[in-house]
């Protein structure tokens, strides 16, 4: 009946529960963690944090930037400490901030250097270590470990890590064990592969050492630039902590290298928002390739959404699983798409469809279609489409007095619709049951998730379900509708319809990706219809958010993907300016992934599955990568963007921008 019944994955052998509830908003219960005067986890608010981008040796610059971040609402300031000298300088930065009346806790960010960590732990309130590189150097080797040789590796890690644990305990310093998908150790990769399971085990190896020492002032994170992997890893962490008898440690949420602008915001919302919806996460950092103070309002919008999300509101009927340990029919730790039948290019193996909502307009003109990627070019008198061309346009009761271009089709309210090869009716569930005129191939039937779960679930093979909910806990209510379909083996495709009324454009670009992304990450949905009331450019903003959500949840790639780091004190070139320059020259290369990294701290793995990489290796010296391989070493920064374009051309991924682009 479900994905679960055909799945023999040991990760879900004893259940798939990872959250307190999938049906009512409830935060996961955690122990409190103290960071200076700040507490997080337990019943404390979800904390907002960010990281400085200035060289840590620039004391005054670091102080000023920290103050800008704190004034914007940052509650924890992280600063990189690549070596002992930067770790030592944290003392001056901290002192300067205290003298200016700022008591916000500081976090030292450590990669590779236990001696810097041990020094910083005596100075600042928290240290972040990366278990992938604290005790291991990356050699990109696959080693076959026996149980005995693996255990002796763990002994080696214990010897290196134990001094830091003891110092943190003595000084009351908190710690984040922060796994990065892109920088797992060769040991973890050899045994678990490049997987959410490997990410979790990477942290648990270090956590066991802390618990053996009765040191519990710990926060955990599982970051990745791949939102599916990131979400699965945090969920698995939650389950493994429970199953393994560990304490319930708070979680720090983040999507690494999310990028900049609208794409970075949408991608962060898909990853972070998906977890927040299920009550996971006690502190968040939105990593944008922008000045860190601009990350704060985005993080605040994501978090404040839950201030009024009472658990008792609009109860959603829980799924009756195989046992208490199975609270849904999903595999929450591995992406699997819900199986559906294909109806006229919707569902089956087709990419999710984008439906543009024009239903509040009394009339629609040819020029209006520009907002959804379809252009009329008077010269040479033809239609064109960019990479964000919507698939369907929903016009409500309005009719069109022109032919739709580029394969775009119309959906119209059934009460006024004369079905044809280009126009398809949208019924309510009740209308559909008694309708005398239907389309012979494709009919859309709009149904509320609660109505569906109460038995309004009879659909013939021409029906595409348009699933919506008026519940304040909208995403879980719609998700519950999907569970009903899966349990009852109903395989009609589903268009997810999310309606946001009159929220601001900024909030819309975070909330819609949260709700839509959370469903697509679990493989639920064959299309997305977004509705927004008041915005002046609502069709355009809904269209870019729709495509952005599908791209960020890795369901439909429609544009170039940039995996750019947020920059920090290690950055070796002007990341914002370079990213903008690369974007300007390559943003027509649909489907190409370009990694832009300020340094090579974690090796090329950090760029995840980028096709091309632009990486700082020295002051204004760049290495260019094809996949995981360096192909041009030490290119001067002022010619590196042109060299990157040349590289893309050499590998056949270049095309000239078209007129529309
Ligand atoms: S990749 Fe970017 S954010 Fe990460 S350490 Fe290097 S410069 Fe800093």
TrEMBL record:
Enzyme Commission no = 1.17.7.3
Q: List residues of the IspG TIM-barrel domain.
A: 31-300
InterPro entries for the chain: Dihydropteroate_synth-like_sf, IspG_atypical, IspG_bac-typ, IspG_C, IspG_TIM, NO2/SO3_Rdtase_4Fe4S_sf
Cofactor: bound how, per the entry note?
Answer: Binds 1 [4Fe-4S] cluster.
Question: Annotated pathway, please?
Answer: Isoprenoid biosynthesis; isopentenyl diphosphate biosynthesis via DXP pathway; isopentenyl diphosphate from 1-deoxy-D-xylulose 5-phosphate: step 5/6
Residue ranges the record marks as coiled coil: none
Q: Where does [4Fe-4S] cluster bind?
A: 565, 568, 599, 606
Question: What does the record give as cofactor?
Answer: [4Fe-4S] cluster
Q: Which reaction does it catalyse?
A: (2E)-4-hydroxy-3-methylbut-2-enyl diphosphate + oxidized [flavodoxin] + H2O + 2 H(+) = 2-C-methyl-D-erythritol 2,4-cyclic diphosphate + reduced [flavodoxin]
Which segments constitute the IspG C-terminal domain?
Answer: 561-649
Record keywords, A-Z:
4Fe-4S, Iron, Iron-sulfur, Isoprene biosynthesis, Metal-binding, Oxidoreductase
Q: Which GO terms describe its molecular function?
A: 4-hydroxy-3-methylbut-2-en-1-yl diphosphate synthase activity (ferredoxin)
Protein family: Belongs to the IspG family.
Which NCBIfam families does the UniProt entry name for this protein?
Answer: ispG_gcpE
Described purpose of this protein according to its UniProt entry: Converts 2C-methyl-D-erythritol 2,4-cyclodiphosphate (ME-2,4cPP) into 1-hydroxy-2-methyl-2-(E)-butenyl 4-diphosphate.
| The name this protein goes by in its record | 4-hydroxy-3-methylbut-2-en-1-yl diphosphate synthase (flavodoxin)
Q: What is the primary gene name for this protein?
A: ispG
